[in-house]
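lol forgot to send this yesterday, sorry. struct tokens for the thing we talked abt
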């Protein structure tokens, strides 16, 4: 079985998501002490996205990083950024949940859609033509 078939990519994606969540939380925790909460969240998301790209190429989908997939990868996480930021705003502003807890919950809410989009971007980026093989 290749790295990009069957159920293992989803498990690997979840593992990479755990690492990314730790990266996001670490950056967020450091920055939220000196910047507004939403700015810290956006900076943490961008940092975690770079880690996510490399780990998902290598461990989740077994594809080589490429300029093409790198250029498309941030777009694939636009939905993650929008959904995560909206969830963060709702959790902290409406529900009154502590921002340190809300940032982790916001990441979990956005994860399923991110897997599907990430798979499409990285597999197509590795093939270079966008057509199934």
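and heres what i got for the seq, position by position
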């Amino acid at each position: 079985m290749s790295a990009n078939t069957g159920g293992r990519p989803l498990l690997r994606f979840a593992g990479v998501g755990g690492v990314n969540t730790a990266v996001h939380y670490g950056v967020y925790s450091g920055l939220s002490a000196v910047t507004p909460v939403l700015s810290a969240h956006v900076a943490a998301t961008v940092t975690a996205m770079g880690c996510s790209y490399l780990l998902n190429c290598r461990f989740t989908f077994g594809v080589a990083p490429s300029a093409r997939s790198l250029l498309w990868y941030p777009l694939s996480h636009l939905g993650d950024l929008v959904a995560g930021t909206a969830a963060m705003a709702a959790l902290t502003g409406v529900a009154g949940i502590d921002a340190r807890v809300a940032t982790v919950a916001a990441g979990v809410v956005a994860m399923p859609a991110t897997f599907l989009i990430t798979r499409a971007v990285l597999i197509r980026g590795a093939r270079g033509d966008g057509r199934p093989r």
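The chain has two domains: 8-65, 67-127. anyway ping me if u want another try
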